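Reopening: structure tokens for the PRP complex, inputs below.
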Amino acid sequence: MKPLRIALTKGRLEKDTIGLLEKIGYDCSAVRNKGRKLILPVGDNAFEVVLAKAADVITYVEHGVCDLGVVGKDTILENGTRFYEILDLGFGKCCFALAGPKGKDFYAGYRSKTIATKYPKVATSFFEGKAMDVRIIKIEGSVELAPLLGLSDAIVDIVETGSTLRENGLEVIEKVCDISARLIVNTASLKLRKQEIEELVEKINHCIANPQEKQEEAKEAAQ
Ligand code: PRP
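Re-run output (same inputs, fresh job):
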């Protein structure tokens, strides 16, 4: 049978995901030394790893060309749910927040507000929950620029350390929700390859529940 294929989000989540796979005992040297190769073996061909942009991880899992995926809850909230979200991996922790210029009362006045965001669906549903009519402008990156340039009153964006906001004279007005990395599974794969997937999930679960134990085992193995 073909090895299970896992789509991993490139960038912020990449290091922690590879670290997790190594902690549960898989050799990830091919992923660490990937060069320009896009499909990489993990362990003794236990499974294959694909490195992709977050939204593409969801696309590949939804279409079943990857059985599993590791992706942030932010991307899941914005991009879709035609898969099973089976595990909170506990890393990639940050939050969605409404943020705006420091010291300015966002809610003051009756004028309808403009919000810049990379996540229009998340922003729309946040303001619908408040029964507030806002104009949403989609921005692709460095959303913090929009209020600085006078394009928007505020932003809905990811806040991790808060330094991007601080360094640009912005502050959190209100937290929207917490975010972390999730393990997602294609619906058909979960039925057809149930045992393999459950074994992997069990290992990951054990590692998340006993992080110290795994670190010590890894140290011992390295000695
Ligand atoms: C994200 C987010 C913020 C920043 C927050 O952007 O959109 O800009 O990180 O992190 P902080 O609270 O630790 O400063 P990212 O770096 O992913 O790039 P982007 O702005 O190009 O989307």
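The mean pLDDT is 93. The two ends are 35 Å apart (CA to CA). Marking as resolved unless the reporter disagrees.
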